[in-house]
Each structure stands twice: as structure tokens, then as C-alpha cells.
Design goal:
The chain is α+β, with helices and mostly antiparallel strands. The chain contains nine helices and seven strands. The longest helix has 68 residues. The radius of gyration is 39 Å and the shape is elongated. 19% of the residues are buried.
Length: 368
């Protein structure tokens, strides 16, 4: 706020002058009035009386100034110095005038309590930070261990899948074991999906950003999802926004995100239903929405669906939405969900049209 020059000048006057200027003005006016009255009454030695009153007034001002310096000025200076130390991070400092039994002391005690609370809050924050860092290191170690195990398991699992496939071809057409072999192959594929998702989560590749047609990226994901319907009475409807400009993104990764949302929507529908996909633009963001008419997500599960290994389906790995969330965040975007049991789910992915220049993805890192 811009103050007038007169008001700005007044704010620069020290508080002592602000106190004494009115007092001096009243004393001077009183002396003039007393002098006039004494002269009108023709009192003898009136000038001596005026000088005595003036001397008493000056003495009174000095006494008042001394009292203010002791009771107010020193505590204010100490308070300002203490605030400066607190501002530089010294939360162990306290004001000494808090021991006084007056309003100034009460102010000091309240200030000391505030600094004490700040100090306790900082200590708790430091302890929390240390615990989270230790937990992050522990999880990183576990992640590397899991990724190594997944990599080692994939090779023998591929050999087992090959052996089972050969065995299935050698079985007679009417053998009852064929049904068991089909179940084994399905479970092997399920394990392979879990291992692939685990490796993608533990060791994600950095995005390859470049301007591309987001509508085309989404359309490719829709085509792949339609191939998974397997004659189910489910429709996938895609409504692209033709006015959407080029979006700086990694088409393969964003296609993976949308495909995951589409497959989740398909699996959430039991019977007839549909999944609608739309694109839009909101200011500097590109919006992709995937809405299904499935069973919906319980309210207590909404806050957990992006956490690793959390799933509401018995056949799910619990990593798909976590991977999708990490990919969207690596693009500087955000993914949100709204759902209710029996009313379907709606996922909203917001991506910036252009990435900030300072954003540089790091390999092997997925933000949470």
C-alpha cells in the first residue's frame, strides 16, 4: 500500500517522540495560558512562577523519559533482537523481561511460549523426516531386491511355460488333463503379468518427451482395449477434441496409462455396459477422462487405489494404477478419481501442454 509522504514521514518517527510531542505541546499551551492568567491578574513575580512551572515540566519530561526507557525501550530492543535470532533459526533464545509482572512481562511470556512451540514443532518435523528417510532407504532396498528376484524368476518361468505348452500338444484330444493344463497356462500368464508390472514399477524408464498428437495416442489405446473385449457386451466410446493442440508427452507411456484405465473399466463391468473416453483442453492443460458404468469403488478404498499392491480385484496385481500415477506425475500432471458403488468410476488425467524447462525426469524414479 502506498502511503502519502506526510504519513510515511510520521511512520519514521521513533515512538519516544510520538509520546513526548503531545505532552510537550500540552505543557507549552498550559504555560502560555497560565502566563496570560497571571498577567491579567497582575500577580507579582509572575515570570518566576512561569519559569518554575517550566522547570518542573522539563524535570517531569526527563523522569517520564527515563521510566519509558527502562520499562518499554529496553524490552522492545530485546524483543527485536530475539526475533532476529529466531528468524535466523535460533529457537533456543528467549526474552528475559518475561519475568516481569505487568503487561510487558505477559507479552514476553507469550512470545517465549510461541518460540517453544516452534522449537517443539521443528524437532518433531526433524524426527519425522529422519524416520521417512530411513523408511525410504528401506523401501528402496526392498524394491531392488524385489526387482532382482522378479528378473531371476522370469527366466525359469518362461522355461516352465514352454514345457507346459509342449506337454499340452502331446496330450490326446480327449485327455481330461487338458483342462488342468489350460489352468496352469493361465496362472503362468498371471505370474508373468505380476513380474512385468513389478519390474516396470521398480525400474521405470525415463519418459521420452516430444510434442505429439494426444488424440492419436488415446485412439491407439482404445483400439488395443477393444481387442480385449472378447465378445463382451461392452462398448468403448471415444470422443476426441479436434481443437486439442500438440501435447508434449511420451506416447507409449501415456498409452499405457489410458489402456490400464480402460481395462480396469472393462473389468469393473459385469454384463452390459460402456466405457467413455474424452479429451478436452482447460487453459494450459490437456484433459483425458475415462468413465465406466461398472460397479464403482467403495469410499474407503478411493484413497488407497494408487498405492502399490492395493487392489479390489482378486485377479489384479495392484500395481497398474500405481504405475499409471507415477507416469502421469513424471509428465508433471495429475490423475484424479471419483466413484461410488453401483454408479461407476470416472478417472481424470490432466497433462500440461508444455513441460517446464526445469523439469528433467530421472531414470529409476517414480514420484508418489
Amino acid at each position: 500500500m502506498n502511503l502519502p509522504d506526510s504519513m510515511r514521514w510520521a511512520t519514521r518517527i521513533r515512538w519516544q517522540w510520538k509520546v513526548f510531542i503531545p505532552i510537550l505541546g500540552v505543557l507549552a499551551l498550559s504555560i502560555v495560558v497560565v502566563t496570560g492568567v497571571l498577567q491579567s491578574l497582575e500577580v507579582h513575580n509572575a515570570h518566576w512562577i512561569v519559569l518554575a512551572a517550566l522547570g518542573f515540566a522539563i524535570l517531569l519530561c526527563f523522569v517520564l523519559l527515563f521510566v519509558l526507557l527502562v520499562l518499554v525501550e529496553r524490552p522492545l530492543e530485546e524483543l527485536m533482537n530475539t526475533i532476529e535470532r529466531v528468524r535466523h533459526g535460533d529457537l533456543s533464545t528467549r526474552v528475559k523481561f518475561a519475568k516481569r509482572d505487568d503487561d510487558i512481562g505477559r507479552l514476553g511470556r507469550q512470545f517465549n511460549e510461541m518460540v517453544e512451540q516452534l522449537n517443539e514443532g521443528r524437532q518433531k518435523l526433524q524426527e519425522f523426516h529422519q524416520r521417512e528417510m530411513a523408511r525410504a532407504e528401506h523401501l528402496a532396498t526392498l524394491g531392488e531386491l524385489a526387482a532382482g528376484l522378479a528378473h531371476e524368476i522370469r527366466n525359469p518361468l518362461a522355461g516352465i511355460a514352454g514345457v507346459v505348452d509342449v506337454m499340452s500338444k502331446d496330450l490326446p484330444a480327449n485327455s481330461p488333463s487338458r483342462a488342468v493344463v489350460g489352468d496352469v497356462q493361465q496362472e503362468i500368464r498371471h505370474i508373468q503379468e505380476i513380474l512385468n508390472d513389478l519390474l516396470s514399477y521398480a525400474r521405470p524408464r525415463p519418459p521420452d518427451f516430444h510434442p505429439a498428437d494426444l488424440n492419436a495416442t488415446i485412439e491407439q489405446a482404445v483400439l488395443l482395449a477393444r481387442q480385449q473385449l472378447r465378445n463382451k457386451p461392452i462398448q468403448i466410446l471415444y470422443t476426441p477434441n479436434p481443437s486439442l493442440p500438440q501435447v508434449e508427452h511420451d506416447p507409449a507411456l501415456i498409452q499405457q496409462v489410458v489402456l490400464n484405465l480402460l481395462l480396469n473399466g472393462i473389468q469393473a463391468i459385469s454384463g452390459t455396459g460402456k466405457v467413455e473416453v474424452t479429451t478436452a483442453r482447460e487453459q494450459n492443460l490437456a484433459i483425458v477422462e475415462v468413465a465406466d458404468t461398472g460397479r464403482g469403488i467403495p469410499a474407503d478404498a478411493l484413497a488407497k487405489i494408487f498405492k502399490p499392491f492395493f487392489t479390489t480385484r482378486s485377479e489384479g496385481t495392484g500395481l497398474g494404477l500405481s504405475l499409471a500415477n507415477g507416469i502421469v506425475q513424471s509428465h508433471g500432471g495429475k490423475i484424479e478419481v471419483s466413484s461410488a458403488p453401483g454408479k461407476g468410476s470416472r478417472f481424470r488425467v490432466a497433462l500440461p501442454l508444455e513441460r517446464a524447462k526445469k523439469e528433467r525426469p530421472q531414470a529409476g524414479m517414480v514420484l508418489k
